[in-house]
Amino acid sequence: xxxxxxxxxxxxxxxxxxxxxxxxxxxxxxxxxxxxxxxxxxxxxxxxxxxxxxxxxxxxxxxxxxxxxxxxxxxxxxxxxxxxxxxxxxxxxxxxxxxxxxxxxxxxxxxxxxxxxxxxxxxxxxxxxxxxxxxxxxxxxxxxxxxxxxxxxxxxxxxxxxxxxxxxxxxxxxxxxxxxxxxxxxxxxxxxxxxxxxxxxxxxxxxxxxxxxxxxxxx
Length: 219
Known about the structure:
Largest sheet: 6 strands, antiparallel
Structural class: alpha+beta
Radius of gyration: 21 Å
Helix content: 25-40%
CATH class of the largest domain: Alpha Beta
CATH superfamily of the largest domain: Phosphorylase Kinase, domain 1
C-alpha cells in the first residue's frame, strides 16, 4: 500500500483532505476568476462544500483608473458543482426570493444578500461553481468573540441587540412569507422560528421603542 500523508485537523481551517478530485479548488491570494474579472484579496471562511473569499471586481478599459468594488466569492466543491442548478440551493433559492420580492414590498428585502453573478471555473480537481455576492459584515458571534473583550462582557449593548434582533426577525419573516425556511447543520445555526413567534417578537421590539412604563424587555 502506498504511503499517504494525513494532515492534522487545524482549528478554523477546512479539512485539507478535501483538496482532491471532486473536492475543494485550491485558491491563493492574487488568483483571478471569470477571465480576470475577479481577483482574490483575502480569505473569509469555508463550509462543508465550499471555500469563501474576498475578491475585488477588476475594472476594464484604459480609462478606468479606480479600483473595483469588493465582493464575496464562494467556490463550491466540484462534486456539489456537478449537480443540476435546480438542485443547488445557493442558486435556486435566491432566484425564488428575488422573484417573490418583485411581487411585494417587504422590509426584510434590505436584510438579504442575493447572488449577483455565477460561473464555472475549471481547476485540477474538476469544474467548480463560483458564486458572487455583495460583501456582508462580520457575524454576531465574531463580534462577541473579538479580541479585547473581557470575560463577562461578551454581549451586545441592549440597543444594538434590539436592532440586530429586529433585522434578523424581519429577514426570517420574509423567508417564511416566500415559503423558505432557514436552517443550519451546525449547533450554532440550527434554529427555526415560527412566523407567529416572529410577529410576536417584532411587536415586542416595536413596543420597546416606545415603552409606556419603565419596564424592561428580555433580550
